[in-house]
Amino acid sequence: DYALHVYQVDRAVGAFRETGHLWSYDPFVLAGQPAVAVEDLTSKTIELFVIAGTRLGVNRWVAFNAYVLLVHLGMPFAGWFSARLFRLSRAASALAVLFWIVLWNFDSLLHWCWFVGMISWSAASVLIVLVVALMYRAVHDRSPWTYALLGLTAATVTLVHPFAVLTLLFPLAVSYARAFSRLRAWEHAALVASVALAAATTLVWIRPALLFRHDIGPVDAFLWPTLKYVLFDWLELLKDMLMTGQPVRTAFRTVVFVLAAVEGF
User: Among 198, 71, 58, which residue's Cα sits nearest to residue 123?
Assistant: First the structure.
């Protein structure tokens, strides 16, 4: 995917320089094809980051690599802040960060995602936990600043990867339902504003996506594991690397799940 994202960034930088849009028509692909109009919904953040970098005089590929590096460097900090937002002690938070680093580098699926270039989803996986932690803290502390930070972080994760909403929907809905009766009117309004702000990031890509919706093809057949993969993962058996990455290493993930369950109870 890194090669794909390099192409997307290159086209977006050129298009923005010439037309002020993030998409263009590429006459050299498939005998002519709309470029970065539909297929790059998960690359808008890195495109904007590189465009901003080039405007500041940074080489586009230096900016591209800097984005990837920042995702890696930001991961342990996001783990620390998430743990502290959940009111874990300093020692427990440090242990949580250690587990994040171990999972990032040694869990087969997560390692495979960023190794092959799915850097947006890897970044979203980190930010998703931070959003859930901010939601937890917001409904407990009831601070306007926490709600504001929740909205900004939610908007960031939806810009990084729109499909993050599918992962966030359940935990955020549960948190909201549990706190519903004790929230004040301004808190309900703040959460609605957060949802609206997160949804507003679609304005970056929605118009060209709708304009060229007839060019959308079938989704690639990877990362669609079924329930039986839970057993295969637990036994560290490789059934299909397109679903789980290769090689399959899930021991650390299993340990983390168990410890998280113990902590939850």
Answer: 71
